Amino acid sequence: MKLGRDRWDIATIVSIAQGDTEVIQWGDDSWCKRIEQCHQFLLDQWKGDEVVYGVTTGYGDSCDVGVSASLVEQLPINLMRFHGCGMGAILPPGHALAVVAVQMASLSQGHSGVRLAVLQRMMDLLQHNIAPVIPEEGSVGASGDLTPLSYVAAVLMGEREVWYEGQRRPTKDAYNELGWEPLTLYPKETLALMNGTGMMTALACLAHHRASYLLELATRLTSLAVVAMQGNREHFHPGLFARKPHPGIEQVAHWLYQDLDGYQRERALRLQDRYSLRCVPHILGVLGDALRWFKETIETELNSISDNPILDPEQEAVYHGGHFYGGHIAFVMDSLKQAIANVADLLDRQLATLVDPKMNHGLPANLSAAPSEEQAIHHGLKALQIGASAWTAEALKHTMPASVFSRSTESHNQDKVSMGTIAARDCLRVLQLTEQVAAAHLIAVRQGVSLRQQTGQVQLPPEQAGLTSFYRELETAIPLVAEDRALELDLRNLVDSIQQQTWELYSHG
């Protein structure tokens, strides 16, 4: 994508987070001219004794405090420094690069007053995979992600720390090795870097990407659960879903019906399967439709100018407003984490049914594959089901919306805030927990289908079918649990595979 010309999308941000920083190209001459004109307009306002927030005034509740000409150039440095109070876990380097890219998307539109040199240094960070070290905690989501984004501004100035060549190092050391000079940020530039929704929007892009894959994985897992439970393919018949045409429901039902084409079972055990199988299109379809709706909202924010004030050189206007408010991202993340947690709950219910001999239609208790003479001393997936239940419970606990917990801050100037970054972090946590449940489910369906096949009770679709191909990969990746053994390493490897989107599924083929 080319700065100043192309529209940003979620896929671009994900590519940057994954290390493909060549997806961004420098803008053309007309774009460069627009950036410099906006910066010159800002200088003219400053030199012309106009009142511009954050340039000739203090910040936040101090917006009525004038700053003398002799102190204006120190003001942006102090803004970066006093916001260096982030806490909590450190963002992974890829996530931090995504933050840089999202904030660059806003600044590159030419209404923030930053110089080309600032955008060039941000581009340099991306192209050299130099990620600011950014603590996760400290933003209320308005006035933007001030504290996390101060770590981006600090790195441009040569301060704090970066991830460089796989190590956490002082920024000045990395600059010295590269022969780079720290930037001296001009009035408004630090404010423009910090006063936006860059962190929450970056995390929202990454969450959307992971949730899209999780939707497909949960569908494929359900197909295998149907096989393991000798379930009914006709619950997903196209004729049924033509009568309730939510696009997400229809898509999931189509995937399931397609997966199970050619699947055969020994006998029909129930006229109607339990809800955790029969109603899967209705459950996962909510997530499918939500992802479509939320993509538009996230990408609208991604292509918006999110700092304050906004400059319009053509109209010779300075607009003071609140575009840093992350309400849309907060709503999307609060809503998405609920849909994702429902996936965890669904998979947990399927897993609980698979291991329970009262409901699993003749499978061994806890899906134990131990020889009959040793059944008493081996426990199959008993503890795995407990773990999945624990992860599900924690995911469900995190569904409380963050956006309703607005706190008045900064002398009641920021008296109504979005909590968008907390909502985004919660969403990523719910994703992590749900991916762990999915990893446990992978072990369970691999075990359950294998046990059915040993007794000849089910037949998978033909070998070239997507479902059977996927199952063969699971057989290779997950040894059958015959004797009791620790499953932690299996789980961690499976979670890594999920997050790396290793398996070809439906649209991810």
Task: List the SSEs and their pairings.
Elements: H1 10-17, H2 29-47, H3 75-82, E1 87-90, H4 93-107, H5 116-127, E2 131-132, E3 135-137, H6 146-156, E4 161-164, E5 167-170, H7 171-178, H8 189-194, H9 198-228, H10 238-241, H11 247-259, E6 264-265, H12 275-278, H13 280-302, E7 310-312, E8 317-319, H14 327-355, H15 382-397, H16 420-454, E9 458-459, H17 466-477, H18 488-499
Antiparallel strand pairs: 1-3, 2-4, 4-5, 6-9, 7-8
Helix pairs in contact: 1-4, 1-9, 4-5, 4-9, 9-11, 9-13, 9-14, 9-16, 11-13, 13-14, 14-15, 14-16, 15-16, 16-18
Task: Tell me the domain tally.
Answer: 2
Radius of gyration: 26 Å
How many helices? The count is 18
Number of DSSP strand runs = 9
Shape: elongated
**Strands of the biggest beta sheet: in what spatial order?**
2-4-5
Helical/strand content category: mainly alpha
Largest sheet: 3 strands, antiparallel
General description of the model:
With 509 residues, the protein is mainly alpha-helical. It folds into 2 domains: 187 residues, Fumarase C, Chain B, domain 1 (Orthogonal Bundle), CATH 1.10.275; 279 residues, Up-down Bundle (Fumarase C, Chain A, domain 2), CATH 1.20.200. It is 52% helix and 5% strand. The chain has 18 helices and 9 strands. A 3-stranded antiparallel β-sheet has the order 2-4-5. The chain has a two-stranded antiparallel ribbon with strand order 1-3. The chain has a two-stranded antiparallel ribbon with strand order 6-9. A hairpin with a 2-residue loop joins β4 and β5. α9 runs antiparallel to α13, α9 runs parallel beside α14 and α14 runs parallel beside α16. The radius of gyration is 26 Å and the shape is elongated. The model has no long low-confidence stretch (mean pLDDT 93).
